[in-house]
Write a structure and sequence with these properties.
The chain is α+β, with helices and mostly antiparallel strands and 371 residues long. The N terminus and C terminus are likely disordered. The chain has 4 domains: 96 residues, conserved putative lor/sdh protein from methanococcus maripaludis s2 fold, CATH 2.40.420; 87 residues, Efflux pump adaptor protein, beta barrel domain (Elongation Factor Tu (Ef-tu), domain 3, Beta Barrel); 55 residues, Beta Barrel (OB fold (Dihydrolipoamide Acetyltransferase, E2P)), CATH 2.40.50.100; 63 residues, Helix Hairpins (Orthogonal Bundle), CATH 1.10.287. The radius of gyration is 47 Å and the shape is elongated. GO terms for molecular function: efflux transmembrane transporter activity.
């Protein structure tokens, strides 16, 4: 029978060494765990930030329209006859009321002369009757009334004769430039013959269509840019002068009219223009596009508060030109993180490289000013 005794000194020594090793490993693991939990508070994460700015939200309207003169007319003669005078040089400027064409008016001129004679005779008869009555002659009132009626009728006949004479000429109804014509002196024309066209092109009008969503924002006096369809680099400023009172049910758009100054006379009616208009829809916060991240709750940004990272939920409004218009839990002037975002955690202590560099440059500037 074998009896068990006390362990040998060698075994006891081995157990003591093993226990010491286990205790050391446990303390090291505990220290490592504590260091990991506190590492975010102990070290600074270098990041690059950008300021939160405020910018307008601008909607752009692009439409195409055809220009026309602010006043334009096609001239016809009011009666038929042979042309005896014509001032119809193409593209010549004429003043309002200037005579452009005259038809043979000999008969009409004689009719005016005859009406003048008849009116003069009627007035003499009436004056004679009135003079005789002043000397107590017995001129009946009916004779005086008849003489007065003859005077009135003679004045009417004279006016009619003048109207007929005026119809033998064509005058410019407004100042403008004449178009090309085929009418010449000696031609026989009638009331359907086109004499010429007349355009007042000092201002051009361009009609263009606008989506119904812009009702109330496209208004008179709104500034627009007009670009020639064939020369997009040539831009001219225009002004909206009229807005239609209804929306086209088939296109869901309404018509607007822009006026383009053409005092330099470099543009012509009939040209095609692209109309660009910018409509402001309010101001929003603007941040670099890189600063906006996506999470389970939607878009957000990392902002800085007392050198600590802070997550702020935002709503995206519009993206453009590398920036994002947003609104949310930040304010103008705050700074958002744009580089180093992947390592950021809420409450983490950060080191803003931009601010550090600006601070480092300040003493040099102050010293230079003192020098």
């Amino acid at each position: 029978m074998k009896l068990f005794g006390y362990p040998s000194p060698t075994a006891i020594t081995s157990l003591i060494i093993l226990g010491a090793l286990l205790s050391a490993c446990s303390k090291e693991a505990e220290n490592t765990e504590r260091g990991g939990r506190g590492s975010w508070g102990a070290r600074e994460l270098p990041v690059i930030t950008a300021p939160v700015e405020r910018a307008p939200l601008i909607d752009a309207i692009k439409s195409v329209g055809t220009a026309r003169a602010q006043q334009s007319v096609t001239l016809f003669p009011e009666s038929a006859g042979v042309v005896t005078f014509a001032k119809l040089a193409p593209d010549a400027f004429v003043e309002r009321g200037e005579v452009l064409l005259v038809l043979d008016d000999r008969d009409e001129a004689l009719a005016v002369r005859q009406a003048h004679v008849e009116l003069s005779e009627s007035k003499r008869v009436l004056d004679r009757y009135n003079s005789l009555n002043a000397t107590e002659a017995n001129i009946s009132q009916s004779m005086i009334d008849t003489a007065q009626s003859n005077v009135d009728l003679s004045e009417i006949r004279l006016s009619q004769a003048k109207v007929e004479l005026s119809r033998r000429s064509v005058k410019a109804p407004f100042s403008g430039r004449i178009g090309i014509t085929d009418v010449e002196i000696g031609d026989r024309v009638n009331t359907t013959t086109v004499v010429t066209t007349l355009d007042d092109r000092r201002v051009l009008l361009v009609d263009f269509t606008v989506p119904e969503s812009f009702i109330g924002r496209v208004v008179t006096n709104l500034k627009v840019q007009a670009r020639q369809w064939e020369s997009p680099d040539d831009s001219t400023e225009g002004t909206v002068v009229a807005v239609d009172s209804r929306v086209d049910a088939s296109t869901r758009a309404f018509r607007a009219r822009a006026a383009i100054d053409n005092i330099a006379d470099t543009l012509r009616p009939g040209m095609a223009f692209e109309i660009d208009a910018s409509i402001e829809k309010g101001d929003y916060l603007s941040v670099p596009e890189l600063s906006v991240q996506w999470g389970a709750d939607g878009p957000y940004v990392w902002s800085t508060l007392d050198n600590r990272a802070q997550r702020a939920q935002v709503e995206m409004i519009r993206r453009g030109n590398g920036r994002m218009l947003i609104r949310g839990e930040i304010a103008e002037g705050d700074r958002v993180i744009i580089e180093g975002i992947q390592s950021v955690r809420p409450g983490m202590k950060i080191k803003d490289i931009n601010v550090t560099q600006e601070t480092a440059k300040t003493p040099d500037i102050d010293n230079a000013d003192r020098g």
